[in-house]
Amino acid sequence: MQMKGMVAVVTGASRGLGKAIAIEYAREGAKVVACSRPQSPTGLSGTATETAEQIESQGGEALGVPCDVTNEAQVKAMVDQVMERYGRIDVLVNNAGLMIIGEPFLDIEPEQWDNLMSVNIRGPYLCCRHILPVMMKQRRGSVINIGSRMGIEVTAGGGTAYSASKAALHMISHTLAEEMREHNIAVNVLSPGSLRSEGAWVIPWNRRNWDVRIEPAENGPCAVYLALQTANSMTGQYVHIDNFGKTWGPVSSPR
Questions:
Q1: What is the pLDDT of residue 101?
Q2: 122 occurs within a structural domain
Q3: Looking at residue 86, which CATH number applies to its domain?
Q4: What confidence tens digit (pLDDT) does each residue in 57-105 have?
Q5: Domain assignment of residue 87, given as a range
Q6: Number of separate domains in the chain
């Protein structure tokens, strides 16, 4: 078990990629804190509590915490709850996010834009703001921000809102990695590829390449590898699942 004794916080863990990462971490021995909003704004099934219950039914240890990552009071309360129960946080996966895919710029309403930016940018900011001090005291930790190729390439359907939010998250990660280097905290970006997830299915544009998309669970080994990193081993990197085991991962690591 590669993550035995570690405590990992995973946001957006009610379904899809976040749930898959949470389950993989638990299999590797981590104590997992699954976070998500109490209910999906789009009516999708699944909660953080249900993810935690599934992990525990499989013999793992988990805590499900309803938490809106855009609400600072809720984020602080979540971190306080984790510290009271476990006394440490080793890994933070900023996975919670919204997508506006395949919509022209002028069709995106200001409220949609603000909501997406709040979840995709403010959410990781608040989680880092309240969890990094814990990691700094420990003198080690790993932050994994879920990015996207749409944040570095102009791709069909990417859209201005989603692509801009991911580009911003990438740059936050790169600059934060330098700030945290002296504290031995890794900050990296994982691009998980096009996923066959519940959230992706509800966006019609995503169904055009459904047959070539991958299951969220395929990112499990990638997320475990990144969780084990510190600033001394790998930090400030944008990595894609397609290159795992080739240009990064168990075979070789970019520095």
A1: 75
A2: yes
A3: 3.40.50.720
A4: 999 999 999 999 999 999 999 999 999 999 999 999 999 998 887 788 9
A5: 7-243
A6: 1
Q: What is the mean pLDDT of residues 118-122?
A: 98
Q: Which residues pair with 33 in a beta bridge?
A: 9, 63
Q: How is residue 120 annotated by DSSP?
A: I
pLDDT band (50, 70, 90) for residue 203? low
Q: Is residue 255 one of the residues assigned to a domain?
A: no
- Domain assignment present for residue 23? The answer is yes
Nearest Cα to 127, choosing from 146, 143, 114, 147? 143
Q: Is residue 1 in a domain? A: no
For the residues 173-187, what does the mean pLDDT come to?
98
pLDDT digits (tens, 9 = 90+) for 130-139: 999 999 999 9
Average pLDDT, the chain: 91
Give CA angle at 21 (18, 22), nearest 5°. 85
Q: How far is CA 32 from the centre of its chain?
A: 13
Supply the DSSP symbol for 245: T
Nearby residues of 148 by Cβ (< 8 Å), 6 or more positions away: 162, 163, 166, 191
Gap between the Cα atoms of 199 and 213, Å rounded: 13
Reported for 51-56, long-range contacts at CB under 8 A and 24+ positions apart, including other chains, are 51/13, 51/14, 51/15, 51/18, 51/19, 51/22, 51/23, 54/23, 55/22, 55/23, 55/26
Burial of residue 219, with CB atoms counted within 10 A of its CB: 0-12 exposed, 13-18 middle, 19 or more buried: buried
Model pTM score:
0.92
Catalytic annotation, residues: 162
CA 149 to chain centre: 15
Q: Percent helix, strand and coil across the chain, each rounded to 5?
A: 50, 15, 35
